[in-house]
C-alpha cells in the first residue's frame, strides 16, 4: 500500500516523543506536489523552527520505516522532512488550497477538544 492510499490517521507516526507526519504524506494530505510543499517551507523558513519541521537522523528514519511500513519510501536516497502537529498547522497556512484550509480547521478543532478534556 502506498502512502497516498493510506488514511491520514495511518500517516501519523511517533518520533522524539511527539506525533509527526512525513513530508510526502503532508503533501498528499494537502493534495499538492511534494516539490511545492518543500518549496513553500523553504521560502518560509522563519515559520518552521526545528520543533515544527526537522530532518530525522538516519537511525530515526530507519526506526520509522520499520514501525510504520514505510518500505515504499526506501531507496529515494534522501531522508524526508518530518512535520510535527505545529508544523502541519503552519504548513496549512502557507499552502493555498481548499484542502489545506479544511485541515487547518480540523487541527484547530481537535486541539481545542483535547484542551477541553478534564485531566484524568
Structure summary:
By secondary structure, this protein is an alpha+beta fold. The protein has five helices and four strands, in the order ββααβαβαα. Residues 11-93 form the KilA-N DNA-binding domain.
Any overview of this molecule?
There is one protein chain. With 120 residues, the chain is an alpha+beta fold. The chain has one domain. Helix content is 48%, strand content 11%. The chain is built from five helices and four strands. It has a four-stranded antiparallel beta sheet. Strand 1 and strand 2 form a beta hairpin. Helix 1 packs across helix 2. The longest helix has 19 residues. The radius of gyration is 14 Å and the shape is globular.
Largest sheet: 4 strands, antiparallel
Structural class: alpha+beta
Terminus-to-terminus distance? 37 Å
Estimate the strand proportion. Answer: 5-15%
Total DSSP helices: 5
**Series of H and E elements:** EEHHEHEHH
Number of beta-strand segments? 4
Strand order of the largest sheet: 1-2-4-3
Features:
120 residues, disordered N terminus, four-stranded antiparallel sheet, 5 helices, 4 strands, alpha+beta, single chain
Question: Mind sketching the topology for me?
Answer:
Blueprint: E1 13-15, E2 18-22, H1 23-30, H2 34-43, E3 53-54, H3 58-68, E4 82-84, H4 85-94, H5 98-116
Antiparallel strand pairs: 1-2, 2-4, 3-4
Amino acid at each position: 500500500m502506498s502512502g497516498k492510499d493510506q488514511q491520514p490517521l495511518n500517516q501519523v507516526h511517533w518520533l522524539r516523543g511527539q506525533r509527526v507526519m512525513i513530508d510526502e504524506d503532508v503533501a498528499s494530505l494537502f493534495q499538492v506536489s511534494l516539490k511545492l510543499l518543500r518549496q513553500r517551507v523553504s521560502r518560509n523558513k522563519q515559520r518552521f523552527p526545528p520543533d515544527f519541521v526537522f530532518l530525522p537522523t538516519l537511525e530515526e528514519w530507519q526506526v520509522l520505516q520499520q514501525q510504520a511500513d514505510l518500505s515504499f519510501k526506501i531507496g529515494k536516497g534522501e531522508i524526508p522532512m518530518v512535520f510535527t502537529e505545529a508544523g502541519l498547522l503552519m504548513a496549512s497556512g502557507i499552502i493555498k488550497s481548499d484542502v489545506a484550509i479544511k485541515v487547518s480547521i480540523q487541527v484547530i478543532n481537535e486541539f481545542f477538544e483535547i484542551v477541553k478534556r478534564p485531566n484524568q
